[in-house]
Specification:
By secondary structure, this protein is an alpha+beta fold. It has 18 helices and 27 strands. The two termini are about 30 Å apart.
Length: about 700
């Protein structure tokens, strides 16, 4: 890494909460249900050996409130001379993993533990531990070479304008918080806490009875390290939301089953600290032992951002409801993210995948007709699924999303066809990985409806079908459907006859055939196989003499795209044999032809998803890299990995932690984003990768 100063999430599972940390200044903080960092100061520091000042990590700025806001003529003597001095950049180092983020400066080591654990079924043993909405912090001071005692401290400035800061009044805890939702605490009896406008007022209070200054916007916990001592202070950072959590569907956070107050969260986090630390270290060792430093960094960064977007809720009838928010946009269970995150979730907690699929059927599916472009006649269609389930803790009405609008041809149009494919693919991945045939039987009417809907979107006349989607959903009302690549040009943005969706449709038909044969539906399975044959033939026939495939088939759009190969991952992951060697050969030849500077490579070697757009998405690059290496036999592209890390660590991008959409290397959208966990596939080879990853991380908790 070129610089240690980049924001990263440190998040519990399912709490939609984060301690975001890493940028200089008040650009991180403790966030609950936010679209970006909390923008509050984090105070971590140690008294200098000679007692002259306090050296700090640089995660804070000027306080927003001070005595002058009250004492307008300046008569107060509450002001303290600034005694906090940040370590220089050269004095600071950082070791960054998915579970442990460690900062070292002088005699100070600051660690944050947030282990990537499975989200267990809420009824299982251990759910209370795994779903505790907290992260763990350690502050280690090496005072063995000093002849005087020194103070060390950890604190933050609260940013919630609706409630004030407070000292915790709780037996067994020393801590500070804001309202009932966010707090930090230690069980160390040899510490004290205080509130102030300046940390110095807590570190060197004039009178200790002034420490509970409730107008103070900063809360700090202070401990003392004796001369000649090596000492570690341990803190819990807790998050808590009581009461109703969402609208549209009434829910509460599922952790409310076990925790009634944030103090309960803090007690439990501190009492289970040893397991948290061990799990964090083991997870990181597994990643580092299998990946290059660049890939280990990207996987760790992506996993952290994923967990920061997760939310585990409970309905009024007690049923759990799993949500992954879409980063800075906070759309809920965006389906074109669900299908990409499924590899990670199936390895870690398959029940969440089933949970999301069930809710899409129950509430976020609808029946829609289909239209040829420029034609007003509506033909038979079938089942479709919404783009998402709502936004920012508000569930959308049944059959509607927060995003899709009629009459459009670009961003915010409908993604009906792609989401239809996504339901089938995600369901197929789930059934293949879990062997849950009972669930598949219950969903048989949906699966058959999906097959019919896909066929109708190809062509109403069976004799004219070529296996590729050519009709837009009637809900578009004269507009045109788009793909998950909504902000790209026609090369990847238009759904109709798109090469990316054509290959994805081929893969979907194969997955559908596999499930239908398992369920004894031979006739329907034969229909699916016939459509897969047609789709493969259409793609193969579109290849030109140079081996290049058009981004949009038959419409004169000759842009070139890397994601033509993306959907090869699905048949491979579910273990289907390669019955289409010619299609694979054509796609391999196409990839070889486009992975060149000026076509689908940037000058620094980074991958350019479309030859006609500088907007390239890291999550999709990661997925295509896996396909290229494990399925098409290409060597790992180390130069590209270095370039992609460079994107994430560019000073223009580091505020929003892991980001997806990069316009020539600059984060322009999809920031603070969860989808980068497609990179988890790097940990496996081409043989049953989800099971490999599952077994890898199952062993880390043994």
């Amino acid at each position: 890494m070129t610089s240690p100063f980049f924001n990263a999430h440190h998040s519990p599972i399912g709490a939609f909460a984060t301690l975001t940390l890493g940028m200089k200044g008040s650009l991180g903080g403790l966030g609950l249900e936010l679209a970006g960092p909390a923008n509050e100061g984090i105070y971590v520091g140690l008294e200098e050996g000679d007692g002259s000042c306090y050296r700090t990590l640089p995660f804070y700025g000027n306080t927003q409130i001070s005595a002058v806001d009250f004492d307008v003529e300046g008569h107060t003597d509450m002001h303290y001379e600034g005694a906090l001095h940040p370590y220089s950049d050269a004095e600071i180092s950082r070791e960054f993993g998915a579970g442990v983020d460690e900062w070292t400066a002088g005699d100070l080591v600051f660690r944050v533990y947030s282990p990537p654990r499975s989200a267990p079924d809420p009824e299982s043993i251990g759910a209370k531990d795994a779903l505790c909405p907290s992260v763990l912090v350690e502050l280690t001071v090496d005072n063995r070479d000093c002849e005087r005692e020194r103070k060390a401290f950890f604190g933050y400035s609260g940013s919630d304008r609706t409630v004030g800061m407070r000292l915790l009044d709780e037996p067994g805890l020393v801590g500070v918080g804001q309202g009932t939702s966010i707090a930090i605490a230690t069980a160390d009896k040899n510490t004290y806490a205080g509130l102030a406008w300046q940390p110095e007022a807590v570190l060197t209070p004039r009178l200790k009875e002034n420490l509970q200054f409730m107008l103070g916007s900063i809360g700090v916990i202070v401990g003392t390290v004796a001369a000649g001592e090596l000492r570690t202070f341990r803190f819990a950072v807790g998050f808590f939301r009581e009461g109703t959590a969402t609208t549209g569907i009434k829910t509460r956070y599922l952790y409310r089953r076990w925790y009634d107050r944030i103090e309960d969260v803090l007690h439990h986090a501190l009492s289970s600290a040893e397991a948290t630390i061990a799990d964090s270290k083991r997870f990181d060792s597994q990643i580092r032992s299998r990946l290059s430093p660049e890939r280990a960094f990207m996987v760790a960064h992506a996993i952290r951002s994923y967990y920061g977007s997760t939310q585990l809720l409970e309905r009024e009838d007690g049923r759990p409801l799993w949500v992954v928010h879409e980063g800075e946009y906070r759309m809920m269970n965006t389906f074109d993210l669900t299908v990409d995150q499924a590899f990670f979730e199936l390895a870690m907690n398959p029940w969440t995948v089933r949970n999301v699929l069930d809710l899409f059927v129950e509430r976020y599916s609808y029946s829609d007709g289909a239209r040829f472009p420029g034609c007003s006649e509506v033909y038979g269609g079938g089942i479709a699924f919404t783009h998402d389930m709502g936004v920012a803790n508000g569930f959308a009405p049944a059959g509607r999303s927060s995003y899709e609008q009629a009459g459009l041809t670009g961003c915010f149009s409908f993604m009906s066809s792609e989401e239809l494919l996504n339901w089938v693919l995600t369901a197929g991945l789930y059934v293949s990985h879990t062997g849950d045939i009972g669930w598949a039987k219950k969903q048989l009417p949906v699966l058959l409806n999906c097959l019919t809907s896909m066929e109708h979107r190809d062509d109403p006349d069976p004799d004219r079908r070529n296996g590729v989607m050519a009709l837009d959903g009637a809900r578009c009302a004269g507009g045109a459907e788009i793909t998950t690549y909504d902000s790209l040009d026609t090369s990847l943005g238009q759904a109709r006859n798109n090469l990316y969706l054509a290959v994805k449709g081929w893969a979907t038909y194969l997955i559908l055939e596999q499930v239908l044969r398992q369920l004894g539906e031979s006739a329907a399975a034969d229909r699916a196989h016939a459509q897969a044959d047609r789709a493969a033939a259409t793609v193969i026939a579109s290849s030109d003499e140079d081996g290049l495939l058009p981004a949009v088939i038959g419409e004169g759009v000759d842009a070139r795209i890397i994601p033509a190969i993306e959907a090869l991952v699905y048949p491979s992951v579910v273990g289907l044999p390669n019955e289409y060697p010619e299609l694979v050969r054509v796609l391999t030849r196409h990839l070889d032809a486009v992975l060149k500077p000026g076509i689908c490579l940037f000058d620094d070697g980074a991958w350019k998803l479309s030859s006609t757009s500088n907007n390239s998405w890291l999550s999709k690059i990661y997925l295509c890299q896996y396909v290229a290496e494990q399925l098409l036999g290409k060597p790992a592209d180390a130069r590209a990995d270095i370039a992609h890390v460079g994107w994430l660590l560019d000073s223009a991008n580091t505020y929003f932690a892991w980001s997806d959409q990069m316009l020539a290397g600059k984060a322009v959208g999809s920031r603070y984003y969860p989808r980068g966990v497609t990179s988890i596939l790097w940990l496996a080879d081409g043989r049953n990768p989800i099971a490999q990853i599952r077994d890898l991380f199952a062993s880390q908790s043994a």
